[in-house]
Amino acid sequence: MYAAIAAARKDASVLLLDKSLVGRGGATIMAQMTVAAAIGHEEPDHWTNHLQDTLAAGRELCDERLARLLCENGPTRIFEMDGWGAHWARGADDRIRQVKAPGHGRARCCYVDFLNTGPGVAGTLRRQVGTLSSVRRLSNVAVTEVVVHDDRAVGAVGMDVVSGDVVTLAAKAVILAAGGLTKIYRRNSASTNMGGEAYALALWAGAELIDMEFVQFFPIAHLAPRLVGMDPIMWDPFRYKLGGRLLNGNFDEFMHRYGGQDSGAYTTVRDHASYAILKEVEAGRGSPHGGVYLDFRHVPDETLRAAFGPVIDRLAHNGIDLTRTPVEVAPTAHYHMGGIRVDGRMETRVPGLYAAGEAVGGANGANRLSGNAITEALVFGECAGREAAGAAAGTACGWNAGAAAGAAERLRNALGTDDENGVPANVLQRRLQDVMWEHAGPFRTAERLGKGLDGIREIREAPVAIRPAEGFNLDIQDRMELRAMLTTAEALVRAAAGRTESRGAHQRLDFPDGDARFARNQALAMNGDRMEARWPNGDARS
Amino acid sequence: MSDATSRAGVTTELHVWRGRAEDAGRYDVYRVPYVEGMSVLDALVWIRAHVDSSLAFRYGCVNANACKTCMALVDGRVAYMCTARLTPAVGKVEPLPKRPLIRDLVTDTAPDDEKLTSPTQRD
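Predict the joint structure of the above. Result:
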């Protein structure tokens, strides 16, 4: 949405497509945490400090151009959003409140109170987009391919979900802002449209992906008891405000055994925390549902209420009383550091094809700091929109019906492959989630990754059943999504197999140590029907 | 649905409105494994995965009540299906009554200026 706003500011005519309802899907709406930017309201800060922290967390793999853009432009975007009515939490002095999250050297993480950061940000952007007459919004349009002609992105082919009609869209520039891939894992904190389609669309169009092996597993996602009406990653704000002790199944603190701090200290960055929790579970010291306990019993009720007000009531509605019972938490697939390879203007190697937000790879390297995801959504969106509009202004429409016909034909063929002995695509998606969790999850080995590739191949070859239904046919939507999920999953597994070391969020049990030769990025691209890896800064293995 | 497993044999009956026109629908009855705390949305996702994938309903954020797109009538009252709890007794789910029906539980909730009326096609 930020890209649409920025493009409209440059006098572009914008089509803003969303597979669900505009501004109500994706990851932003789910973000209950913070937005990191060095605005210096809580304490003196500078974007170069933010950059230093981001690069340190990225374990030598950050694309410094992108990380710099994120940190340098973050404050401008925070203030612009403030002017548009984003209700950042403020102190009595009217300055924007900022908290300190793990890995950040200063208190620089802004938030909207009572776990409303994501909905607050999305709502603000949705309202702002709505004021712009040059932005045409289209809900329930699922893009299935970017159309490329004469080596340029010239539009897209997709489907109107409501009618089932094939849709073709001409454009002078295309921005992919469809978020991350965490839905390809069984345990995830994703919206239903986070199947990694942006990555597949980019690959098929001829762009490169980068750092695909780096999936962030959020360490303390809610596991039990059953919780509805809340995002499973909700416990982080509780930790930065109130501490909270992590205990294993024996009710013992354990973070110190992995080089971290105990006693409610909220200091361990995400890849280390996930590693420690999963190791405890593996050693048979997990909680009953396969995680660890998060314990707030030492925090008085009035302190809980002062910090989280209505959220405490929502927890009570779920039968959770933090003063009496610890909850169970476990790592879940949460964010993707890897993504579409772009230059400092957000353009891919395919002219006219841009990316924004989580779909972009490289800014966060091997591990992302808490709070950097919304910042990149805002900053990269603004940059991509502005640059794409600038490029479009000097370009003739390159639409080519022949190029689009191929994409439309592939869509119609996929829709026509109903097999009465087949399995619905949502069931196959679930199988893929299991394959990815088992074989390409937080701990990887060459053998597991090999099985992962086999599993992906089997699902790709499985006959798919599409039940006939006129209008809002989820089978068809799931079928197209599965096709993209499989491509993205394959890219991830191939990249994970290629990196024979452990670094940040990529942990290889068969190569448990970091290897200085791998302090470089891995890229992937299609060569005909085959996916090929490339090491743009030199092959670590040669 | 969560990783929690159903207590052996405990099911609940869900009556779900199906159809493309308000005056030409039916209630399909599904028996769903009951897990304490599960939502109506959990049950619909289970039905699509295990009984009938052609069932249409709208949802985005999966149980976080953040996207606000899963509204329907649950036991006669407007509710978000992701937070409406299933009970071990019989439940009934119907589309929103005052919105144009698309199919099954999906109604037209997109703002008027966000719909594709005529595909943008150029040859």
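Chain A touches chain B through 62 residues (CB under 8 Å).
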